[in-house]
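Handout, section 3.2

Students often ask what a structure token actually looks like in practice. Rather than define it abstractly, here is a full record for Glyoxylase, beta-lactamase superfamily II. The first block is the sequence as you would receive it.
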Amino acid sequence: MITNLARDVQAFTSNVFLVTGDRTVLVDTGANFDVVDAVRSEVDDLDAVVLTHTHRDHVGNLAAVKDAFGVEAWGYDPGIDGVDHAIADEETVRLGDRDYVALHTPGHKNDHLCFYADDGGVLFAGDLIFQNGSFGRTDLEEGDRATLIESIDRVRDRIDSDLAEMHTGHGPSVTSDPDDHVELAGQMARQA
């Protein structure tokens, strides 16, 4: 089961996805709200934190989550403060009851990862792709439009047309034809 713990938060934060099952994992920790209480309202414990990337709005609560639950964080670059273990490109990561392949997708930030489960058709897109063809900012440090387009193309080529769910770093999750939103993001990024 996937629950967005930040869905009703009014403060500036990323989405925070609690993925329950065999391995209870928090995908990103958000910022500027009490995510520890939000997690505790759903589950007693966490097995790990997995990060799409380390922009402040995605990791502002990381230290509090690690302290409260005694968990370690997994991300692309363990050289970044707070990231305990590396997730390599194409590595398999267990989130809940599914195995996801980690896809290194820079362009918004160098350490950006997307997570895709072919079984079940689920994509955690982070800040690469959003609803209605929106895409991650490239005007921040480490942002690069050409690299972002390559990353969107990589995800588009990897997912199946039966993609059922796309969970994004901001805004609503997409459960109606999410592959169309991925395709549109590639088109829009080329035109912007």
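Discussion prompt for tutorial groups: The chain has two domains: 1-86, 98-192. How would you have guessed this from the sequence alone?
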